[in-house]
C-alpha cells in the first residue's frame, strides 16, 4: 500500500498540513516532527516527518516501511501511507485525539486513570504487541520503543501502540546512542551493554513492557528521583519480592483496585524485567498471566510466589 493509492501524494500531505504549518504542530517523537493534517475527504491524520535521513533512495525507504503497513489491529495505530520528497521521509498515521498514556498518567491533574482503565490498557497494549511479534504479516516486528508516550488512547481509553518498528530509521551510531539515553528507563540490560546499537529482539520489547506495567500500577515515571537509584525497576521489585503489592499502587487510586489484577500485573512485570532475556516470557505468555488464563505456564515457571489470590475475590464494588 502506498500513499498514492490513497490519494495522499506529497502534494496532498503538504496541503493537509497547510504546508507543515506550526499551527498544526503536535510534537516531536523518536522518528521526527509530528503534524496534524486533514485530508480532502475530511479524515484527520498524524503526519510524521523524519528529522534526519540516512543515505538511502526512496525505493529503499519504501521497501523498509512497507511491512509496517500490514500491522492492522485494534490496539495498533494504523499506518495509512508514506511518501518521499527529496530528502524528506514522511509517514501518515490515523489521528488519535485523546493524547498519550504518558499524559494521562503524569500530566492530567484533572482526572486520574482509575484501576479498571489501567488494567484494560495493560491488556490492550499486550495484545497489540503480541500481534506485532507473532501474528502480523512479516512478523516479528520489533517495536523498539515501548513507553507511555508511544501508547495513544482513544476517547474510550482503548490503547493503541504507535511508532512501532521505527528504530531502524536511526541515522548514525551517535544518534542511536543519544536516543538510548533518552529511553534509558525502558532499555533492557543487553541493549545497554551493547550501547543500544544493533540489538533488536522481542525480549527487549518484553522488558520495556514490564516497566510499563510498573508504571501503570504505581503512577511513577521510569526514572523517578523519589525512588532508590532514580529507577522504578529496583524500587518496584523490592515490594514485589516481599509481596507488599499494596505499597506499589498509585496513591491516587486509593483502595479502588482489584487484588487479583494487581497480583497478575505485578507477577507479569517481575518476569518481564529479568536480567537474562531467556528468562523473560513471550508477550503471549505475559498476556496469559494478565488475563489469568493459565497460571502454570511451563515456560515461565517462577519461584517468586504461588498463586495466592483467587480471581473470584476481585471486586471493586
Automatic annotation (TrEMBL):
Keywords: ATP-binding, Kinase, Nucleotide-binding, Serine/threonine-protein kinase, Transferase. PROSITE patterns: PROTEIN_KINASE_ATP, PROTEIN_KINASE_DOM. The keyword Chaperone does not apply. Residues 20-297 form the Protein kinase domain. ATP binds at residue 48. It is an enzyme of class 2 (transferase). One of its GO terms (molecular function) is ATP binding. It catalyses: L-threonyl-[protein] + ATP = O-phospho-L-threonyl-[protein] + ADP + H(+); L-seryl-[protein] + ATP = O-phospho-L-seryl-[protein] + ADP + H(+). The keyword Ribonucleoprotein does not apply. Its EC number is 2.7.11.1. PANTHER family: INACTIVE PROTEIN KINASE SELMODRAFT_444075, OS01G0750732 PROTEIN. This is non-specific serine/threonine protein kinase. It comes from Perilla frutescens var. hirtella.
Amino acid at each position: 500500500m502506498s500513499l498514492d493509492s490513497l490519494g495522499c501524494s506529497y502534494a496532498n500531505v503538504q496541503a493537509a498540513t497547510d504546508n507543515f504549518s506550526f499551527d498544526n504542530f503536535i510534537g516531536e517523537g523518536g522518528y521526527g516532527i509530528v503534524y496534524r493534517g486533514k485530508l480532502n475527504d475530511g479524515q484527520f491524520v498524524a503526519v510524521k516527518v523524519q528529522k534526519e535521513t540516512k543515505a538511502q533512495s526512496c525505493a529503499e525507504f519504501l521497501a523498509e516501511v512497507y511491512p509496517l503497513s500490514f500491522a492492522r489491529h485494534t490496539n495498533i495505530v494504523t499506518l495509512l501511507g508514506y511518501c518521499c520528497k527529496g530528502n524528506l521521509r514522511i509517514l501518515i498515521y490515523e489521528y488519535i485525539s485523546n493524547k498519550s498514556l504518558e499524559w494521562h498518567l503524569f500530566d492530567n491533574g484533572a482526572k486520574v486513570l482509575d484501576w479498571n482503565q489501567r488494567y484494560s490498557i495493560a491488556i490492550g497494549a499486550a495484545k497489540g504487541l503480541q500481534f506485532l511479534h507473532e501474528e502480523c504479516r512479516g512478523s516479528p516486528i520489533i517495536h523498539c520503543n515501548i513507553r507511555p508516550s508511544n501508547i495513544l488512547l482513544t476517547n474510550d481509553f482503548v490503547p493503541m501502540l504507535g511508532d512501532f518498528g521505527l528504530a531502524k530509521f536511526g541515522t548514525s551510531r551517535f544518534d542511536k546512542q543519544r536516543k538510548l539515553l533518552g529511553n534509558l528507563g525502558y532499555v533492557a540490560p543487553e541493549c545497554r551493554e551493547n550501547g543500544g546499537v544493533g540489538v533488536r529482539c522481542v525480549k527487549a520489547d518484553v522488558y520495556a513492557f514490564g516497566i510499563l506495567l510498573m508504571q501503570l500500577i504505581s503512577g511513577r515515571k521510569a526514572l523517578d528521583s523519589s525512588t532508590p537509584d532514580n529507577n522504578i525497576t529496583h524500587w518496584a521489585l523490592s515490594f514485589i519480592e516481599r509481596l507488599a503489592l499494596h505499597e506499589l499502587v498509585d496513591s491516587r487510586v486509593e483502595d479502588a483496585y482489584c487484588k487479583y489484577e494487581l497480583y497478575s500485573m505485578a507477577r507479569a512485570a517481575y518476569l518481564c524485567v529479568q536480567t537474562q532475556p531467556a528468562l523473560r516470557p513471550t508477550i503471549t505468555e505475559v498476556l496469559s498471566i494478565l488475563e489469568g488464563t493459565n497460571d502454570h505456564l511451563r515456560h515461565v515457571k517462577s519461584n517468586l510466589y504461588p498463586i495466592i489470590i483467587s480471581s473470584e475475590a476481585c471486586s471493586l464494588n
